[in-house]
UniProtKB/TrEMBL annotation:
Protein's UniProt name: Acyl-CoA Delta-4 desaturase (Delta(4)/Delta(5) fatty acid desaturase) (D4D/D5D fatty acid desaturase) (Delta-4/Delta-5 fatty acid desaturase) (FAD2) (Delta-4 desaturase)
Membrane topology term: Multi-pass membrane protein
Lineage: superkingdom: Eukaryota
Similarity field: Belongs to the fatty acid desaturase type 1 family.
Length: 184
C-alpha cells in the first residue's frame, strides 16, 4: 500500500494541518538529501583517491585494482553504524562484488583489507567527517584528485570508446592509438 505524500488532503482537516504537512515534507527532504550527500559523496572523492583517464574491462585485474584505489570506506562494523551509513561504508567491497548482500560486505571487509595490506595496495578507510573535509577541499579547488599513472596500467585491460561513448574495444585485443585517442 503506497503512502501519499500529497499535503493537499490535509486541507480537508484544516489549513494548520496542511502547512504542518508541507513543513514535514520539506524537512524530510532536507534531512534525506543532506544524509544522502554525506554518505555517498565521500566514496570516490579526495586528494588521496585515484581517478582514471580511461575505462577498463570488467573483471580484469585493472578493474579490481581500481575498485580498491578509486573508492573509500568509512568506519565499518556495528549494526547502527552500518545502518546510518546505509551500508555505503563498505564501498570498496561493493565495487569488488556489486551483487553481494550488505551483510556479506561486512564479512568480506577485514579479509579485503588484509589482502590489500599484504600486497601494498592502498585501502582508504576514515570517518565520514574526515572524508567530508577532503570532499570540500576538492569542491573548492584547494585540492585535486590523484591521477593513476597510465604507464602502470595493464594496456590489455583498457576499454576504448568512440565519440558516442560506445565501447569499440573490450580489452581482449590491444586497442590501437586511434581507439584510445580522445574524441574531438
Amino acid at each position: 500500500m503506497a503512502v501519499s505524500t500529497d499535503p493537499m488532503r490535509f486541507l480537508l482537516i484544516g489549513p494548520s494541518f496542511f502547512w504542518h504537512a508541507v513543513a514535514n515534507l520539506f524537512l524530510a527532504e532536507l534531512v534525506a538529501n543532506v544524509h544522502g550527500f554525506m554518505v555517498t559523496t565521500f566514496n570516490h572523492t579526495g586528494e588521496d583517491i585515484y581517478c582514471f583517464s580511461s575505462g577498463c574491462r570488467v573483471n580484469s585485474p585493472t578493474f579490481y585494482l581500481r575498485a580498491v584505489i578509486g573508492s573509500v570506506n568509512c568506519h565499518t562494523g556495528g549494526f547502527l553504524n552500518d545502518f546510518l551509513h546505509g551500508y555505503l561504508n563498505y564501498q570498496i567491497e561493493h565495487h569488488l562484488w556489486p551483487d553481494l548482500s550488505m551483510l556479506s560486505y561486512a564479512k568480506a571487509q577485514p579479509k579485503v583489507k588484509a589482502i590489500c595490506e599484504k600486497h601494498g595496495v592502498p585501502y582508504v578507510q576514515e570517518n565520514i567527517f574526515a572524508r567530508m573535509v577532503k570532499v570540500l577541499r576538492i569542491f573548492t579547488g584547494r585540492a585535486r584528485m590523484r591521477r593513476f599513472p597510465e604507464e602502470m596500467e595493464r594496456k590489455e585491460d583498457f576499454m576504448a570508446y568512440n565519440d558516442r561513448g560506445v565501447a569499440i574495444r573490450d580489452g581482449t585485443t590491444k586497442p590501437s592509438e586511434q581507439d584510445l585517442a580522445p574524441a574531438m
